TrEMBL record:
InterPro entries found in the cross-reference section: Cys_rich_dom
One MF term in the entry's GO annotations: oxidoreductase activity
Signal sequence segment: none
Cysteine-rich domain residues: 3-84, 131-227
Any one of the GO CC terms: cytosol
Pfam families in UniProt: CCG
Species for this entry: Spirosoma montaniterrae
Protein name: Fe-S oxidoreductase
């Protein structure tokens, strides 16, 4: 299985350990993984800010780098969703290539559950760890990674939660409001800073009431927002991307 590894720019710049964990996890599950060295931003920040017309360069670069792979996998729900819905090419040939990419790109946890159909993981935490899962909005409502409680009907499993429960020594808690937004929202956290921070504090309070030691999720952007608030609170709660918990430790 030939997999192209798409690492969003903020992961590359601020959380390279997430990229390494994703690579190690995919290779441990039998994938042949390539990392196109010329990849850059997918264009989501510009598009979200209302400047989609400025993303042509990002689109063309993405098509050049990721055409020809059996699958493309990213440790980011929001960037995956952007490519799935908004990647476009110039001319018929590029547009066909863009459509092929859109049909082959997966967020990490959906790739593990829907394509690899993972049923077990050789992963064991060194000690019992209480973990809270943050269900990011783009992944949950855009990629259908988890059921939406507001719909009040049976909708299947939470793919991230399913995978976390395969890790020995990990205790996943049930939150009071399991799919509440953290307030990050990309440019929303800049234009509406006060509201964004208050939403983040509310989201963290739910985790803290349940005594979590680690908060995890599929989007580093949301986790970065929560981590910033935790640091200002001088909290001992750690924040880790789900790939860091699923991959078998090399120690």
């Amino acid at each position: 299985m030939n997999v192209g590894l798409f690492i969003p720019c903020y992961v590359d710049q601020f959380y390279p350990q997430v990229a390494r964990a994703t690579l190690q996890l995919l290779e441990s599950l039998g994938c042949t993984v390539a990392y196109p060295l010329d990849q850059t931003c997918c264009g989501q920040p510009m598009a979200n800010a209302g400047y989609a017309h400025l993303t042509d360069g990002c689109n063309q670069n993405f098509i050049r780098n990721f055409s020809g792979f059996d699958y493309i996998v990213a440790p980011s729900g929001s960037c995956t969703l952007h490519i799935k819905h908004h990647l476009h090419g110039k001319g018929d040939t590029d547009e066909r290539a863009a459509q092929q990419i859109q049909s082959r790109i997966y967020e990490l946890t959906e790739f593990l559950t829907d394509v690899l159909r993972v049923e077990s993981l050789p992963t064991r935490l060194p000690q019992r760890t209480v973990v809270g899962l943050h269900q990011s909005c783009h992944g949950q409502r855009g990629l259908n990674l988890a059921p939406m409680s507001e719909l009040m009907r049976e909708q299947g499993i939470s793919k991230p939660a399913y995978l976390l429960r395969l890790v020995e020594g990990l205790e996943l808690v049930d939150l009071d409001r399991r799919d509440e937004c953290c307030g990050f929202g990309g440019t929303f956290c800049v234009t509406e800073e006060a509201i964004s921070v208050k939403m983040g504090k509310d989201r963290l309070a739910d985790h803290q009431r349940h005594g979590v030691e680690v908060i995890t999720g599929v989007d580093v952007s949301c986790l970065m927002h929560l981590q910033g608030i935790l640091r200002r609170q001088k909290s001992s709660v750690q924040v880790k991307h789900i790939a860091e918990l699923l991959v078998k430790s090399e120690k």
